[in-house]
Amino acid sequence: MSKFVIVDHPLIQHKLTLIRDKEASTKVFREVTNEIAMLMVYEVTRDLPLENCQIETPLVTTTQKRLAGKKLAIVPILRAGLGMVDGIINLIPAARVGHIGMYRDEETLEAIEYFAKLPQDIEERQVFVVDPMLATGGSAIAALNQLTQKYKVLPENITFVCLVAAPEGVMALQSAHPDVDIYAAALDEKLNENGYIIPGLGDAGDRIFGTK
Ligand code: PRP
Ligand code: URA
């Protein structure tokens, strides 16, 4: 079974509280979502492999470490996942970015795909799929189904990164994709009858883009 990691650094907890507040403006919500995503990168990339390399400092020749292994790709689930991309790119600027568009049918809560555009060599990359919300898990599962089945990305090369997870979504995602690690800034209490995370932060896409 894969890892489920809660990245609960004090700065992350503080910033998450700022955007849970319903009075947070679109500007604040957008900025702070990116800041949390950036802080999460430290933990999410902790196990990236390193290799030795020789360099010359101004004083001596020395053997040091640099990143090795697979190249990286970030795949936001549209729309709300876009709100995490800039923060992550700040720290890993060479990463390629692919997009998968999913929306939840408001009645059935079923995830419906409407867009996919991924780097050509996505199956050779370490892939970070990002979406602020893991609620029922439907959107994440559908996006990972697409990546593993159509684009042949190995599940062990995928990490799912969200801000707020519901227990129901974590269980569903782990059971559908047991080899995919999940990182969240918080594990909330439950889903309400409309599939929203409680206490949560509301509709992340609408709050990032100011569409409601
Ligand atoms: C939100 C969120 C996730 C999904 C989570 O997207 O960004 O993608 O809901 O819910 P689930 O785990 O129950 O699938 P939404 O469908 O509201 O689309 P949007 O990002 O375009 O607003
Ligand atoms: N999608 C959101 O944006 N928020 C939730 O709480 C659940 C799904």
TrEMBL record:
Co-factor remark: Binds 1 Mg(2+) ion per subunit. The magnesium is bound as Mg-PRPP.
Keyword Ion transport tagged: no
Positions that bind 5-phospho-alpha-D-ribose 1-diphosphate: R79, R104, D131, P132, M133, L134, A135, T136, G137, G138, S139, D203
Superkingdom: Bacteria
Reactions catalysed: UMP + diphosphate = 5-phospho-alpha-D-ribose 1-diphosphate + uracil
A single Gene Ontology CC term: cytoplasm
GO process annotations (BP): UMP salvage; uracil salvage
Family to which this protein belongs: Belongs to the UPRTase family.
Identification of the protein by name: Uracil phosphoribosyltransferase
